[in-house]
Amino acid sequence: MPLDFTPIRTARLTLRPLSPEDAAPLHRLVNDWEVAKTLARVPFPYPRELADEWIAATWAQMAAGEAWHLAIEQGGALVGCIGLTLDRDRPREERAEQRRAELGYWIGRRAWGQGLAPEAAGALCAWAFESLGLAEIHASALRDNLRSQAVLRRIGLRPAGEGVQPFLSRGAKMPVLLFRGDRAALAAARPAPPPKPIVLVAAVALVDSDGRVLLAQRPEGKSMAGLWEFPGGKVDAGETPERALIRELKEELDIDVTEACLGPFTFASHSYEKFHLLMPLYLCRRWNGTVRGAEGQKLAWVRVQKLADYPMPPADVPLVAMLRDFL
Ligand SMILES: Nc1nc2c([nH]c(=O)n2[C@H]2C[C@H](O)[C@@H](COP(=O)(O)OP(=O)(O)OP(=O)(O)O)O2)c(=O)[nH]1
User: Count of domains in the chain?
Assistant: First the structure.
């Protein structure tokens, strides 16, 4: 691999730098008239050595920050290539936010018809807007290549006139349609990510007679281990948040709380990677029993001004600010 480039993953595909082992399958896939005839910069027939040279060239271009040509891999097999090339006619020192790049791709014939091209192209463009700070992406497609035009439209590029381009594979200049789009247009066309499950967690700020708040440390082995949180836990099916808290406080802290002593205070609504947390936070100043870490977890009674010294899950950060204002 040329550089440490973190592969781009989509639902079905991995986009990663080409490797020398890709040369043989790449040659087999692109040395196909049905593929080559649509590509401006690919000769036909495609000499086998050219595959090795091309792969080495892609590394040099990536290292120089000129172009990013990647393998499209599905289920561990190469199915095509995709790339973005920065426009050369612009001065290198030009501000990043004015940079434009040209998108190009091909998919081997056996993988046609599955919508892989828009999946790969949408992901690469999103990566490029984010990581390269591009202003605009453009592309062209042969005037009679309706499939490729549909791909470009689907990822949010819009028609931007016509042109003529030399096609190596055909040894002739051919009429093409030009397309372009900026970050907002491409973002609007990207399919919404699948919805995340909503996880309902009830939590409580126990406040002692000195106005200190109880935090519990998440134990090793759990997600977000080591962070400090408000006592509580997931609400079971058919349970109310109050009943869940009463149960959790008995299990975790060995104290008895009644519903009447749980005052609704505020809530957290936060998207974690795998789920969306909805967490009502109650205030409680009265309980029976002596608080202890019944599950071996570390506990801390913390003055509100000191809460910020305790690293907490990201969902809790706004809650801490609200507690500080309130208490
Ligand atoms: N109890 C509590 N949970 C919190 C807080 N902030 C926050 O993001 N969470 C998250 C961490 C967990 O993903 C979830 C609480 O789940 P839990 O405590 O019942 O479950 P768990 O740790 O055994 O489960 P898991 O995270 O390992 O899946 O809510 C908080 O202040 N208190």
Answer: 2
